[in-house]
Structures are given as C-alpha cells and as structure tokens.
C-alpha cells in the first residue's frame, strides 16, 4: 500500500452483522401485506447486500462539485390514503426547496469546508463509475446518449464532456437547480474552442417519481412525454444520490425505475449511488437512541425495530450540504423491481469495496490525486488538518507506525469516512 490511502484499515460491515440486519429486514418482508406483491408483480427472496450514498459537489476543474446530487421527489399517496393538504405538499416541496435554496460558493470557500475531502472523494467515485460505463458503451458505439436523472445544479456536466458523449438530457425536481444546470452548460459551451466538441443538451424540470410529470401524458405519465424526441433511447441513465427519495411508496419507486430504464436501449446501463440500508440499520441498532452520526453527518429514524419496505423515513444531515428526509432502500427489493423493467444487476459495491477495486488502476489513482480526494497526512504536523479531533487520524498514525506508507499519507478523517461509508454504487444492464 502506498501513500494513496489506508482506508482499508478502517472498520467495515462484517458478514455476521450484515446477516443480522438482513434477517430483521426479511422479517419485515414477511409482515408486508401480500397486496404489494399482487399489485406490483414483485416476488423476491432477500439476499445479503450492501449499499451506499453521499452527496457530492464539483467545480469546473473537477476538484469538487457544486451539484447536490440528491434530488428529492414529491410526495405521492394513493387517493384513499391522502392526508390533509399540508402533508401532501410538505415532503417533496420541502426537499426541492432545500436544493433550490443551496447557494453556489467559490472554490476558495469550498476548499475551506470541513467536508472538502469527503465531497471530493464522493465526486471521484462518481467520476470513475461514469467513466467505466461510458467506456463499456463505447466498445459498441461512438454516439452516446445519456439521461442524468436528478442532475441538480450540473455537477456532472464536465464528466459527460470528458466522456465525449453526443447527447445529454438533464432532469431534476428542483426548478432553480435545473436553471443553474442549464446556465452552467451554456457557460461551458461558450468557453469551448472553435473546434472543440461538446454534447447537445436538454433540461427538464420534472418529478420523476410521479405520474403527473406532464399534463399532456398519454397512457402513463412517464418522463418521455417531456422529451423533445419522445422516441429517444438512452445508452446510460445516471442517478447519483437520488434514487432513495423515490422509496416513499411502491408507486414512486416503480415510476422512477420506469423513467430510468424504460427508455434505455438494449445493452444500456442504469448506474448510480444510494445509501446502504444494511449499514444504516446496523448503525441504528448499535445506537442507544434513534439516531447516530458525528460532527459531519447525522441520521435520525422515527423508531427502531420496524423497517417497512417503503416509506421507512429517516432524516439525514450532512455538514453544509444536506438536511432533508430520505427513505430506506432495501437493495434486494430494488433488484427484483428492476427485473420487471428488463434490467439485470451488473454489480453493487460499497464505497469501500469500489475504492479498493478501482484504485488498482493507475489512471484512477492519478485522478484521485488530481481531484484532491484524500487529505495529506503526516506525523510532522506540517499541515493543517480539516479535523481538530485527535482520534480522527488514529488509523493514519497506526498505518504510518507500521511502516506501510510513504509520507504524506492520503486519507480521510474518521468522521468523514463514517459519513461516506454509508453508501454504495450500483449498475444494471438492459437485457436484449
């Protein structure tokens, strides 16, 4: 192991703990009314799984994204279950408002953020994931069309430009975020040299979890009714730190999948990042209260012991970036639901597993340095660290003491790692 990192030294979900969490979630499946399976056509068996999420940002130099990639979805309840109006508009509009109100800040201010390296690490994870599947598609064709489902303020635009795609459709629930994304694209386009290629783009404000995406829908209100070309087919759908918002109800989660997968070409990919339900429940059960976290992040559930498959809400707070309700995603259920839309799982990995696999590639390692995705640490005290807590770097001290690393060592503070390790990456492929 060289100076890139000692993240593998940090604790992760053990197999025994994972199985215990899986058992509690499977017990919830047994208690779930059979009407869910009857209505949805979803039958499934729980299997061991891990997941993950983190909200990240990036500037035009791919150092850090301004994109708050979580794009929450508005509340969708069956008419017979509809609560008073104040609840109907509360959740979705509140989350959309949260992301609309987030202010863009300059590079200097972002570099002083407590979660500067965490955000860059998450952004690196997205960059590697996106780059991998652009390469997979390009083995089969050159003209690549992409749907960015939950585009936010456009934090991934530069990734798509570097991937030399042909067409991009960006959609998000937050209207101001979509406007900022469009402006960011126009600014990027204006900076291009005369002969420099940049993709064409469309920008759509829409709630991709709801049936009323457009009033003029025919048959089913899918996002495709808003495209300029309703017959458009995508090679990749990217859904970064977004999908968990759809798990408020089965209908919303399924509609999100329809929008993500329904317009994919055969052999196309649905890729993304989302929180790891097993890791979240494990940490909750280990806590003495209904919440857990540190000074960087905090997760609060309504109660322990009951984890419904849909609508299992928790409040998530991430320093400076996120402070909104989210919903637990049981990944084996997502996998079975995706099969109904012709999708087959390519892989799912925790952020740690993904890092340990991809860092073996020298290009990914160089990108990690360029994006400043790890904090330089040495025992000489010659640099200011983002955390003042002594135990936040104990893992790094031990790694150096064992003579396993060159200095400075690249790492994340313990607090940041605890925050980012609640997430996973996933990829599905559309079957022929």
Please tag this protein with its features.
RNA binding; seven-stranded mixed sheet; globular; RNA-binding; 36% helix; mRNA capping; Rossmann fold; transferase; 13 strands; disordered N terminus; 432 residues; alpha/beta
Layout of helices and strands:
Blueprint: H1 15-31, H2 35-40, H3 85-88, H4 90-101, H5 107-111, H6 116-138, E1 145-149, H7 157-162, E2 167-172, H8 175-191, E3 200-205, E4 234-240, H9 250-261, E5 264-275, H10 277-286, E6 291-293, E7 297-301, E8 313-318, E9 322-327, H11 331-340, E10 343-350, H12 351-358, H13 362-370, E11 375-377, H14 394-401, E12 409-411, H15 414-420, E13 423-430
Describe it.
The strands form three sheets. Strands 3-2-1-4-5-13-10 form a seven-stranded mixed β-sheet, with helices on both faces. It has one domain: Rossmann fold. The chain is globular. A hairpin with a 3-residue loop joins strand 6 (291-293) and strand 7. It is built from 15 helices and 13 strands. Helix 1 packs across helix 10 (277-286) and helix 6 (116-138) crosses helix 15. The protein has helices at residues 15-31, 35-40, 85-88, 90-101, 107-111, 116-138, 157-162, 175-191, 250-261, 277-286, 331-340, 351-358, 362-370, 394-401, 414-420; strands at 145-149, 167-172, 200-205, 234-240, 264-275, 291-293, 297-301, 313-318, 322-327, 343-350, 375-377, 409-411, 423-430. The protein has 432 residues and is of the alpha/beta class. The two termini are 41 Å apart.
